[in-house]
TrEMBL record:
NCBIfam families: PRK07028.1 (NF005442), RuMP_HxlA (TIGR03128). SMART domains: OMPdecase. The gene is ulaD. It comes from the Archaea. GO terms for molecular function: 3-dehydro-L-gulonate-6-phosphate decarboxylase activity; hexulose-6-phosphate synthase activity; orotidine-5'-phosphate decarboxylase activity. Keywords: Carbohydrate metabolism, Lyase. This is 3-hexulose-6-phosphate synthase. GO terms for biological process: 'de novo' pyrimidine nucleobase biosynthetic process; L-ascorbic acid catabolic process. It is an enzyme of class 4 (lyase). Residues 5-205 form the Orotidine 5'-phosphate decarboxylase domain. InterPro entries: 3-hexulose-6-phosphate_synth, Aldolase_TIM, Bifunct_HPS/DMK_prd, HPS/KGPDC, OMPdeCOase_dom, RibuloseP-bd_barrel, RraA/RraA-like, RraA/RraA-like_sf.
Length: 427
């Protein structure tokens, strides 16, 4: 088998950061350098020129995702120093043909990005017939967040008389699987550019590509996948992934012996009535989170030590109370997260008012049965159940980006300079 090309996708917005990451990636074994769409949109063709000056002998890929004016955009990229220019496979054939004419004139190749193509197999054959040199089985970032797999797209393309690339959230394991399935070019972005040690991350992928294999992994349930993803991130990562939404307010009392992750069992109660909160324990599956609204009352507690011990016996993953808890001295000795807005010794009466698994408001957030929660020392964030997998995936990307920024700060940078805050202030 021919050694597959490793292409690093510089999907950043700051050229100064991209240059340093590219140098480390090349040192780790990257063959081609992609000036990613965010970088070209942010820095223009100057990003291609600068990287060409740094890497005079490397293949540069300009990921323009061209959808119109094919030859013009190819000319711009080629004159700036690109060897390969990306166009959208979904673009009209007139655009593809014009791009190919420009590519022939300037001696570059065209890579067609199959993102969002309705019939990938038929379109790939058509593009190959038009003369496109590289077909890219690409699943975009937003699609990845919803669970779409570039390896599935790669499998639909079959045998084609052109080079095949694959891209979309690949890591060492999936990159190796792509190589084993016949990919000529394996494109890796976040796993490399968000790593603390870019050179080592690149080298690990290069090693995997040179020793490809397909491992048959045990299929995990969606809930298990969501839980596994959330275990790697923090509550702040999740609220960032939700675009600053989902965080509960007012949880002043926090016992957090470990991270809390689980699906909500909701309880609406009134005036410290502890009947429904205690009954709800028996509605919980292992790992579920009890979320209790005490109707804003903090002078009477609907929850205490005995209820907490009962919840532990049931395997409950944590308790969140928009209201008071009591027996706090005992609760803080137990191995279960408990969040409350207040601590109060008074207990209410078990009258049975309220409802279990109704939609409630808790600490300013709407919570439904089956919504996901994550809680740590920073607080609690609610994730809508229908977006749980997507948000968990986005939170992991937030976490990975912070890993890289943290490393650049360790090397002497500052957050303001790395983020180029003045440049990106809203005008």
């Amino acid at each position: 088998m021919v050694r597959p090309v490793l292409q690093v996708a510089l999907d950043l917005t700051e050229l100064s950061r991209a240059e340093k990451i590219a140098e480390e990636a090349v040192a780790g074994g990257a063959d081609w350098i992609e000036i990613g769409t965010p970088l070209i949109k942010s820095e223009g063709m100057e990003s291609v020129r600068r990287l060409r000056s740094i890497f005079p002998n490397k293949t540069l890929v300009a990921d323009l995702k061209t959808s119109d004016t094919g030859a013009l955009e190819v000319e711009m990229a080629a004159k700036a120093g690109a060897n390969v220019v990306c166009v959208l496979a979904a673009a009209d054939n007139a655009v593809i043909s014009d791009a190919l004419r420009g590519a022939a004139l300037y001696g570059v190749e065209i890579m067609a990005d199959m993102m969002n193509v309705k019939d990938p197999s038929a379109r790939a054959e058509e593009l190959a017939g038009l003369g496109v040199q590289i077909i890219n089985a690409h699943v975009g970032i937003d699609q990845q967040m919803e669970g779409k797999d570039p390896l599935d797209l790669l499998d639909t393309l079959g045998k084609l008389p052109v080079k095949i690339a694959v891209a979309g959230g690949l890591n060492a394991k999936t990159a190796a699987a792509a190589a084993a399935r016949g990919a000529d070019i394996v494109i890796v972005g976040g796993t490399i550019i968000k790593a603390a040690e870019v050179q080592a991350a690149t080298a690990a992928i290069r090693t995997a590509l040179d020793n490809p294999n397909i491992e048959v992994a045990e299929k995990k349930s969606l809930d298990d996948q969501i839980r596994e993803l959330l275990m790697t991130v923090s509550a702040p990562n999740v609220t960032d992934a939700l675009y600053r939404k989902g965080a509960m307010a007012g949880l002043a009392e926090r016992h957090v012996p470990h991270k809390m992750i689980g699906k909500a069992v909701t309880v609406q109660t009134f005036g410290g009535d502890w009947s429904k909160p205690v009954q709800a324990i028996d509605f919980c599956e292992r790992g579920d989170i009890l979320v209790i609204n005490n109707d804003g009352k903090t002078d009477i507690a609907p929850w205490g030590e005995l209820a907490t011990r009962s919840a532990i016996n049931r395997g409950v993953g944590g308790i969140v109370i928009d209201g008071a808890a009591r027996d706090w001295d005992d609760i803080v000795t137990l191995d279960i997260p408990v969040f409350a807005t207040a601590v109060q010794p008074n207990a209410g009466e078990p009258k049975g008012f309220g409802e279990i698994n109704a939609e409630i408001t808790c600490c300013g957030q709407t919570v439904r049965a089956g919504d996901w929660l994550i809680g740590d020392q920073s607080g609690v964030v609610v994730i809508p159940r229908e977006r749980a997998y997507e948000v968990a995936r986005r939170a992991v990307e937030v976490f990975k980006n912070e890993v890289r920024v943290r490393e650049e700060i360790r090397r002497g940078g500052t957050l303001g300079s790395l983020a180029q805050l003045l440049r990106w202030e809203k005008k």
